[in-house]
What does this fold into?
Amino acid sequence: MRPETASTLAFSDEQLRRVRELQALYPERRAALLPVLRMAQETFGHIAPEVEAYVGELFDLSPAHVHEVVTFYTLFFQKPVGRHVLAVCHNLSCALLGAEDVIGHLQERLGIEAGETTPDRRVTLLRVECLCACEMAPMMQVDDDYVGPLTPETIDRVLEGLR
Amino acid sequence: MAERVLMRNFERPDSHTLAGYQATGGYQALRKAIGLGADAITAEVKQANLRGLGGAGFPTGTKWGFIPQKRTAPVYLVVNADEGEPGTFKDRYLLERDPHALIEGMLIAAYAIECETSFVYIRGEYVRPWRIFAEAVREAEGAGLLGRNILGSGFDHRIIVHRGAGAYICGEETGLISSLEGQKGWPKVKPPFPAVRGAFGAPTIVNNVETLCCLPPIIARGGQWFAALGTKSQGGTRMYSVSGHVARPGVYEASVSITLRDLIYREAGGIRGGRPLKAVVPGGSSAAILKADEIDVSMDVDGLKSAGTMAGSAGVIVMDETTCIPEALWVVARFYAHESCGQCTPCRECTGWIYKIAGRILAGKGVPQDPDTIVDVAKRGIGTTICAFYDGAIGPYISYVEKFRGEFDYHIRHGACDVHPGRAGRVPASAGAH
Ligand SMILES: Cc1cc2nc3c(=O)[nH]c(=O)nc-3n(C[C@H](O)[C@H](O)[C@H](O)COP(=O)(O)O)c2cc1C
Ligand code: SF4
Ligand code: FES
It folds into this structure.
């Protein structure tokens, strides 16, 4: 579950302590950037330009540098996502076993295209490259969990379980 | 089936706990290794003929030897748990089912290379493997197996668990190091190799999860024993990830001398529905494809190399007769076009170009010279790039076209697929749209 909007753009004191702890863990402070960006995403929902600037301040890094890092990685979201993220693998093993049918079924059931979020902000549907669970093909990641092999029935069951 | 060396504990329900691991003799090899001393550990690993299992197949003991004798900075061990090669899922099993084997392997390696701090770089999508591994680290810390004066030997070591954020190129060792340092995961020109100048500017050994998990059995039972499990040029067993059109997809452990045929038909139950085999990718999506009559080949690094492909990550992707090869190429080409980090012009441009041509062929809009163009374009960039990503990408590009040329020509001539005649909706709507 992800919070829908950021209330205020600052970490709590407890979180700031954690940031300093992470920075001290590595030989160079900056190595904590990815973990702190992850914290930021969990706290503020997605990494908007203000979040990049805020995290940059915590590291004495320019917002431009932080932006460069954020855009490099697929797990950092630059726009708001739904309360649940479904990431369907469309790489080779999944493609051989019907990934396109899975995506088609999900798009139809959710009424959105891959890359979009449902109007009620419940679900974001994404296409992703190999999640390295090809033995479960065709498969997808539902928030933190891997689910597969997917059939229209298992997909429907997953969708029903999402609030 | 060969003896299970790496998957020996997988059936135990408590295999991920310290108690479960210790009940099967866990951490005895560490004790023994410390008794042997650093040089003897490295000698044992060399004798074991252990070759890196992350993709490149470089001899592990030799790599450790590249650390400069005169040290001006601490040495780091970085564990490559970024598993991202399409078709590969073995490291996920090791992290989840035998995390203490990895910790013990890391400690043995760290003792051998005199390293006090290691980093485990786990791909960001691997949430469950990360939770289980991080818990194992906490347990080991609590039991004094990590920290100061380990087993009363004066050896100090700490493990820092680091999570990636989604980028295939961060599996490449120098890309991984850049990412670990808090930058985008751009690979760097080698030399200097990481063993000389790696993470935070210090000598760094990057080893794959499975490679390190081989160390406790090697120390416990001897390098010679491990070497004898494999072939002349590569010791041991390894874990094969088998997926695609097989009856029983999954991870299988076997000697590196097993043939691809036995792996598919004996271990993974053959082709689903008893259908005829069409093709196999033997070592992750970067490996050149083999046709059905080319599978009597041994799975060791040299065996697959002599067959014109590579052992890579041992991700075996099986395709039966229902597979449309131009479509498979399009999927693979999309992946490389998407994942190129964009630093090198040949890599950036050629991956995008080939994806475009493959999409055009698949959408029935190909022109007769397209297959030749793919091969020409692919060859253009060989050896001109910073990292091996591009040389990996051309493996499939060239082999799919050369080995299945007839199918590409058919698509181009008829604007349709010969494997799925008249099958509507087979061509993804997005093909040819780029
Ligand atoms: C594009 C690319 C992707 C790679 N991905 C991985 C990976 O996911 N896991 C891995 O262990 N090695 C990967 N490697 C290989 C690493 O660069 C490196 O050789 C390996 O981690 C060394 O460990 P080893 O000697 O134990 O195999 C990749 C290499 C390239 C060129
Ligand atoms: S070969 Fe490709 S992935 Fe590797 S550094 Fe160059 S552009 Fe990046
Ligand atoms: S191809 Fe889908 S998880 Fe690997």
In short: Residues A 89, 91-94, 130-134, 137, 139; B 86 surround FE2/S2 (inorganic) cluster (ligand 3) (CB under 6 Å).
